[in-house]
Design brief:
Oligomer: single chain
Number of strands: 14
CATH topology: TIM Barrel
Strand content: 15-25%
Strand order of the largest sheet: 1-2-5-6-9-10-11-14
CATH class: Alpha Beta
Order of helices and strands: EEEEHEHEEEHEHEHHEEEHEH
Helix content: 25-40%
CATH architecture: Alpha-Beta Barrel
Distance between the termini: 12 Å
Structural class: alpha/beta
Largest sheet: 8 strands, parallel, barrel
Mean pLDDT: 92
Low-confidence stretches: none
Shape: globular
CATH superfamily: Divalent-metal-dependent TIM barrel enzymes
Length: 295
């Protein structure tokens, strides 16, 4: 993977000047689409052109939401067809998806959508299913493919003893295919807070040599849970996790500050730029020893 540096998601309503302060942009291509009832994800030319104009010659990575790589019946063919068209028009350095599922068989050609990715059970069957599909998706696009560790709000899922939990599931998938991991440190923090776990112990169990990208984000309390809301600055404990993780992740090539578009507008360019600057400082200071996430 090329070393890209510090990045930010693409937002329609943010000024192009904001993207001159980042090293790469993370595109969610579904945001540039119109959803048809038939299930086809149609790229909107004007949205795609606007995004390309805003980003200019800045490298991009794709971060998808709707592949649903863990659905038992099939992945989302509409997403894959759309990504074929997207890559032909705008090549990306790597792409990533959430380790989970969000579609199940519907009554028509398009599967019913849960609305958000749901966690997979930590089983050998799930690991083998996702590993096979990850290898296929990586071969299809010819660039590295990464799976993101999820935030989850269930105390435990029934699984296989030799897989254990969500960390064990990710590691079992990585053992079976050539994909990498997108390590979301805020998701690690969410799970640690909600399930009374040690976040550093979680990090130590991860296959850090397979981490290609790191996500940072902010969250909020809701109904007794710390949620992965992508609505605020990065909490201090997550910054500390970044300082701990980067020297141990020699192949990390990008760090992204994640926000949802509505919250990006509320926070404003100045706050976003400050978070980007802090991430870059840590990357240069802590990651410089092994080249992680740094030019």
């Amino acid at each position: 993977m090329p070393s890209l540096g510090v990045g930010l998601p693409y937002f329609d309503d943010q000024p192009s000047e904001l993207y001159r302060a980042v090293d790469f942009v993370e595109i969610t291509p579904e945001a540039l689409c119109r959803q048809r009832r038939s299930g086809v994800l149609e790229l909107l030319p004007q949205k795609l052109e606007q995004a390309q104009k805003t980003c200019g010659d800045i490298p991009i990575a794709v971060h998808g939401v709707e592949l649903s790589i863990g659905s038992a019946h099939a992945w989302n063919d509409a997403y894959v067809d759309m990504l074929d068209r997207f890559q032909a028009q705008w090549p990306f350095q790597w792409h990533s998806e959430h380790l989970g599922f969000q579609t199940f068989p519907g009554s028509d050609a398009h599967s019913l959508d849960t609305g958000v990715p749901l966690p997979l059970p930590p089983t050998l069957e799930a690991a083998e299913l996702v590993a096979t599909r990850s290898a296929a998706i990586e071969a299809r696009y010819g660039v590295p493919f990464l799976l993101e560790n999820p935030a989850h709000y269930l105390p435990e899922l029934t699984g296989d003893a030799d897989i254990g939990d969500d960390v064990g599931l990710m590691n079992a998938i990585l053992d079976r295919c050539g994909c990498g991991q997108l390590l979301d440190l805020h998701n690690v923090w969410c799970n640690a807070v909600n399930h009374r776990l040690d976040p550093y112990a979680i990090i130590d169990r991860c296959r850090l040599d397979r981490v290609g990208e790191i996500h940072l984000a902010g969250g909020a309390w809701a109904e007794g849970y710390w949620t992965d809301a992508h609505d605020s600055r990065v909490p201090q404990p997550v910054w500390e996790l970044l300082e701990y993780t980067l020297p141990r992740a020699p192949n990390a090539r990008g760090v992204v500050f994640e926000l949802l578009e509505d919250h990006a507008t509320r926070l404003g360019p100045q706050v976003i730029a400050e978070e980007i600057a802090r991430a870059r400082d840590i990357c240069r200071r802590v990651g410089a020893s092994n080249g992680a996430a740094c030019h």
